Amino acid sequence: MERREITIPGDASHGDLASPAFAIVPSGASRGIVVIHEIFGRAPEIDRVVERFAARGYASVAPDLFFRGKLPCIRAVFRTMKSGESTWPIRQAERARAWLCAESGVPVEKVGIIGFCFGGMFALAAGRGFGAVSANYGDNPSTEAMRGIGPVIACYGGRDRIYGERKGARLTERL
Fold first, then answer.
1. pLDDT digits (tens, 9 = 90+) for 123-172
2. DSSP label at 146?
3. Which of 93, 103, 133, 166 is 20 to 30 A from 7 via CA?
4. Is 131 within 8 Å of 109 (Cβ atoms)?
């Protein structure tokens, strides 16, 4: 399997810039996944997640959401979490999915999104239109922001005082 540093095209009509990403597209992939990094940005651990999915036959891509800087992305994602509006980081994840589908031939309904901590929150906010959503920690977006989301699995540590059981229970209520 070929590890690739790629560029996800931007969308000039929204003022969205092209952005870097890491991808592996195994031949014959019939499923895909967009991997969203933690608050620390794209790191070797996230590349290893892409590699593990690819080893199991998933076409996999991890966009670098912080290529414009961490703070602008975080602010935009929090706007999405409250209102459900499509902000540039959400569109970036959607374009990563479109790239993955075009590159691999995987149909859009077979592409999921997974995120970790900040990325878990992001996956829930961006989950509309994805085949499945996996949130591993992270805060809960508003009900409006999750309207139309695909099937969800979320993991929270029961003893975690910040993102523990109550986040899972709140997510269930909002869904």
1. 999 999 999 999 998 889 999 899 999 899 998 877 776 666 678 888 98
2. G
3. 133
4. yes
- Structure confidence at residue 164 (pLDDT): 65
As given in the structure block, the two tokens for residue 31 are 């499923």
- Quick one: DSSP state of residue 30? -
Side chain identity at residue 88, one-letter code = W
Question: Under a CB-based contact definition with an 8 Å cutoff, are residues 87 and 77 in contact?
Answer: yes
Structure tokens at 29: 């992939």
> How far apart are the C-alpha atoms of 10 and 140, rounded to whole Å?
27
- Close Cβ partners of 91 (under 8 Å, ≥ 6 residues apart): 11, 14, 16
Q: What is the pTM of this model?
A: 0.93
Biggest distance spanned by C-alpha atoms of the chain: 45
Q: Identify the pLDDT of residue 15.
A: 81
Choose the weakest-confidence range: 72-81, 87-96, 102-111, 130-139: 72-81
- Cα-trace Rg, the chain: 15
Place of tokens 């890491």: 22
